[in-house]
Design brief:
Helix content: 55-70%
Strand content: under 5%
Shape: elongated
Largest sheet: none
Number of helices: 8
Order of helices and strands: HHHHHHHH
Distance between the termini: 34 Å
Length: 155
């Protein structure tokens, strides 16, 4: 599969992706439930029999034999397609959507996005340049453009 990492085990990928989803759902580590509480939430929300210990083993990559039923339970709970856990392209697509949703949690980011609607492509490009420079000044990494770069190519 192009872009995949053949030297990584599926269990490691599942663990990394599960940990990422937990972090997205509970961004404040101080309020993040433990694996036992999270497993209980999963059981109460979508059913199944996942235990806290099993969830921890999945998240840490110690458990390699996850069933399709368990992947389906995790996918339904986190609102991702089951292939998120083993497909690079599905994970990239979902992670981009999660990054956007995370950014939009901030009212100022939403306000900025809403106020920019209707501006000319040139003005939007100028605003993006300002934001990119501000990110550099704050020592933040650049944000990869996805479909936005396609739109700016048309101008």
């Amino acid at each position: 599969m192009p872009g995949s990492e053949p030297d990584r085990h599926l269990g490691e990928k599942i663990g990394e992706r599960l940990t990422y989803l937990i972090g997205q759902l509970y961004p404040d580590e101080r309020k993040r439930p433990g694996y036992a509480r999270l497993a209980q939430e999963i059981r109460e929300t979508v059913g199944g029999t996942l235990s806290g210990t099993y969830l921890w083993e999945l998240a840490t990559g110690r458990k390699q034999n996850v069933s399709l039923e368990q992947l389906d339970q995790l996918a339904r709970f986190f609102g991702v397609p089951p292939e998120y856990f083993f497909s690079e392209s599905a994970a990239e697509r979902v992670n981009a959507q999660l990054r956007l949703a995370t950014a939009l949690r901030d009212a100022r980011v939403r306000n900025l996005a809403l106020r920019s609607e209707g501006l000319s492509p040139e003005t939007l490009d100028a605003l993006l340049a300002i934001v990119n420079e501000a990110r550099k000044l704050h020592g933040l990494s650049t944000v990869a453009e996805s479909t936005d770069s396609d739109a700016s190519d048309e101008t």
